Predict the structure.
Amino acid sequence: MTERIDGHTILIGLMAYPIRHSMSPTMHNNAFAKLGLNYAYLAFEITNATLPQAVDAIRTLDMRGSNISMPNKQKVMDLLDKIDPAAEMTGAVNTIVNDHGVLTGYCTDGTGFMKSLEDENLDIRGEKMTLAGAGGAGTAIAIQAALDGVKEISIVNKKDAEWENAKRNVEVINSKTKCKATLFDIDDQATFKKEIADSAIYCDATGVGMKPLEDLTLVSDPGWFRKDMIVFDTVYAPRTTKLMTVAQEAGVQHVFNGLGMMLEQGAEAFKLWTGENMPVDYIRDLLFSE
Ligand code: NAD
């Protein structure tokens, strides 16, 4: 690391709170080192209150950009010069690129999800997806899948605080893309089962399956799945969630956790900042091999 840092090193940030647990600094700094790129990536504890000064600092310090995470993904949008159309539709920014003082906001979670499927030679364009969850991850996935040509998305959500956002996602998709989106109450189990049965992919973006809910899954009957479908859990810790175990019991061929999505959302940001492809397989082996 010290060998790489000199008077020309370009700074990239991560602005969120809490953030000390994040893998992103390790991921990006190892990728810079592997490719011999003169960048450094540092995490900063930034709240909504300190965000305006922090975003100003991107310009002042001539940083190349920053990742943005909770609680700043929405709030940051008012502080930027331009917003990428997909991020605008998602209503969130997780990556800022600084082009000589002009700050543009992107959302790479959705592109990361689609790219992670592409990495497995899977193409869900023209297919139907059932998607549980309409929070940060669910929204980014739904919007990008619709933009990329997924034919139909059935969003299932609880009638909780995110229900209104789920309704908004359906409206945005139906008014701005060719995809047909519909919202269902997840407690209507018969409909939930039928929507999955009709889908090429079931994606869970709720966080059920992650601590403290690691013993839970929204689908516990293997009979709900077909062998030829994709089952995708956005959770990556634990590596094998309860949902994935149920899908494996059903003999589902393509069962994934969220690790590929996490790596690829980082790789998308890496490409925006440096113009280079992140060595994703190298990073996966280095940081996540078990
Ligand atoms: P969020 O809080 O913004 O949204 C959570 C969603 O799940 C909401 O729609 C909520 O209604 C629903 N939900 C919550 N509890 C539920 C329950 N018991 N039953 C049914 N629905 C429930 O969260 P988020 O930021 O969107 O994150 C969701 C998950 O995605 C987390 O596990 C997170 O780690 C993961 N994630 C992964 C990546 C990745 O790159 N792999 C990126 C972002 C988030």
User: Anything to note?
Assistant: The pocket of nicotinamide-adenine-dinucleotide is lined by residues 109, 112, 133-138, 157-158, 160, 162, 186, 205-208, 210, 218, 234-236, 258, 261-262, 265 (CB under 6 Å). The radius of gyration is 19 Å. The chain is about 35% helix and 20% strand.
